[in-house]
Amino acid sequence: MKILTVGEYLMRLSAPSGTGLAGAEELSVCFGGGEANVAAALAGFGAETSFLSALPENAVGEAALRDLRRFGIDVSFILRKRGRLGLYFYEAGASLRAGKVVYDRAGSVFAETAAAEYDLCGALQNADALVLSGITPALGKNTEELALRAVKTAKERGVKVFFDVNFRSALWSMEEAGKVFRAILPHTDVCIASSDGLDVLGGKNAGADKAACERAARRMKEEYGLGAVALTVRESPSASKNVLSGVLVSDKTYFSASYPVDILERVGGGDAFTAGLVFSLMRGADGQTAVDFAAASDAYKHTLRGDKMCVPAEEIEAAMRGDTRIRR
N or C: which end of the chain has fewer CB within 10 A? Predict the structure, then answer.
């Protein structure tokens, strides 16, 4: 199983736990980004993963490249150019205080690189699947063109396309995003979205209502001619405690188990869901197994700090069984 992901790699600067960004006197550093997070999780599960992106030709870019390599991600299709690395600042939420993200990624080397500079054909040559998110085309005309070229080239070559909607209102408007997403979806096999983020495609947000989730996913599947639609479902009694699940509509509708979690890390859960779904479907799992594994991956990621999760598939399967005993 060979999976290609396309997107931007970022440096993350986080305020200490229990401290807001405005009051922080120090920030911790790690790297992340939606599509790279998916690649890391897939590598942990045992898939061969490649990441297509651009990084600055300096020490910071080298640190980012080494970070990707340590997760077992193939970096052969990453361009190195003069420029800057995108940043984002993160403040974890707790109890009644919501988390916050502040982006500083305008003019990054990834955003400034023209789509034609990438070797998309080479990157997709032996790939079984392409994973793309709606964050990539939000970064400017270059990345919008890259996203469209990627999905079209993949479809021409018979590579399965997974598209995670991932709308970010801090990066562009709903109208701009909807227009681009509607151009990407005809080239998509499996679409992934959050149940409360469907308005960007003209749908009704479904929340945690199972019947509403099924209706929304089926509407998307039929409207865009998709093979399958998966929705992440989140109940949020507080910023510290959530209940996570998922729904998959393909040949029929599948609902996952629900996972209550005490959150150590809010970032990257949706990326883990995407990775779990991609991994399961690409190895031929049935719909129920796929959505269960995806939802469990999402929940598991909430127990790990940092953007990325890289654990064996067996760890997720143990969580699905409720096996939380210490392993010695």
Answer: C
